[in-house]
Amino acid sequence: MNDKNDTGRIVEVFNGSRWEAELVKGLLESSDIIAEVKDGLMSSIAPYISPTVSVMVNEDQYEQAMEIIRDRDKKDE
Questions:
Q1: Who is most buried in 16, 19, 20, 65, counting CB within 10 A?
Q2: Is 20 buried (19+), middle (13-18) or exposed (0-12) by CB count in 10 A?
């Protein structure tokens, strides 16, 4: 996502706890989707204040990422 040639927008595909976001990021990356975990400044200073973080992907990979996340959620039911 930090590629200088990339002009696409970055969008959120997941919001939750840090450990769950890291799992989602790993799942997406195993499917060749570039993902990053984004958190606010406060969560890195005091994680108990801001317990949620976001997983972000390039907009052009949004649908593929959401399908993977939905499939993951179905398996957890």
A1: 65
A2: middle
pLDDT digit string (tens) for 20-72?
999 999 999 999 999 999 986 555 555 555 578 999 999 999 999 999 999 98
β-bridge pairing 10-17 and 35-38:
unpaired
Give the CATH number, domain containing residue 32: 3.30.70.1530
Range of the domain at 23: 10-76
Q: pTM of the predicted model, to two decimals? A: 0.75
Tell whether 2 is covered by a domain. Answer: no
